[in-house]
């Protein structure tokens, strides 16, 4: 697949040195000579026009941290690679890795979902999960990143060949995980 551009959040102050640090996706994209854009918002018409000019077949979103406006959602098939707890076909929204570990969940996973106006409410086509017993957040993040990458490639292949099967999320099965708060 040809990646026409990467959109990411602006460099952020991180670490003890309080230095501006680029996101890992920005570092990889720049290393691969892929154009990188860091708009403050995608609600600006000029940004939407720049995206349209790139003419992507698909927009893949992972940990972007901003809700995409309707102008972007309408333009192209937008997918979300979302970290989600998966327990007996139940999809949990906003279930961060740390929350799954703290809850003592048996498994965690990732799903490929269609983006829509709601927060993590789109239909999904592929979910991959793993047992999380004994894993810390760093190890589980790596495991789910690998599973998510392969799930995304599988979904892209399925869509390209017209064999994808989107499954509607059952609203009554959705659960919400409150944000974790930093303890000082």
Element layout with pairings:
Blueprint: E1 6-7, E2 12-14, E3 19-21, H1 24-31, E4 36-37, H2 45-54, E5 58-62, H3 70-75, E6 77-84, E7 86-87, E8 90-91, H4 97-102, E9 107-114, E10 124-131, H5 137-160
Instruction: Classify the helix fraction into a percent range.
Output: 25-40%
Helical element count?
5
Number of strands: 10
Listing every helix as H and every strand as E from the N terminus to the C terminus, the arrangement reads EEEHEHEHEEEHEEH
Average pLDDT: 81
Gyration radius over CA: 17 Å
Q: Rough shape?
A: globular
Structure, explained:
- The protein is of the alpha/beta class.
- The chain is built from five helices and ten strands; from the N terminus they run βββαβαβαβββαββα.
- The chain has helices spanning 24-31, 45-54, 70-75, 97-102, 137-160; strands at 6-7, 12-14, 19-21, 36-37, 58-62, 77-84, 86-87, 90-91, 107-114, 124-131.
- It has a four-stranded mixed β-sheet.
- A hairpin with a 2-residue loop joins strand 7 (86-87) and strand 8 (90-91).
- The longest helix has 24 residues, at 137-160.
- The model is unreliable at 82-95 (pLDDT under 50).
């Amino acid at each position: 697949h040809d990646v026409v551009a990467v959109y990411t959040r602006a460099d952020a102050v991180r670490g003890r040195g309080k230095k501006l640090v680029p996101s890992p996706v920005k570092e990889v994209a720049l290393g691969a000579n892929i154009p990188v854009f860091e708009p403050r918002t995608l609600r600006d018409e000029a940004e939407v026009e720049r995206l349209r000019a790139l003419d992507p077949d698909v927009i893949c979103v992972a940990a972007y941290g901003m809700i995409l406006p309707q102008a972007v959602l309408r333009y192209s098939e937008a997918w979300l690679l979302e970290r989600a707890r998966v327990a007996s076909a139940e999809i949990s929204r906003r279930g961060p890795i740390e929350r799954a570990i703290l809850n003592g969940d048996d498994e965690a996973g990732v799903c490929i979902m269609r983006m829509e106006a709601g927060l993590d409410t789109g239909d999904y086509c592929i979910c991959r999960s793993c047992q999380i017993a004994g894993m810390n957040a760093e190890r589980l993040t790596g495991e789910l990143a690998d599973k998510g990458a392969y799930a995304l490639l599988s979904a892209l292949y399925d869509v390209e060949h017209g064999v994808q099967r989107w499954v509607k999320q059952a609203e009554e099965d959705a659960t919400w995980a409150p944000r974790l708060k930093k303890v000082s």
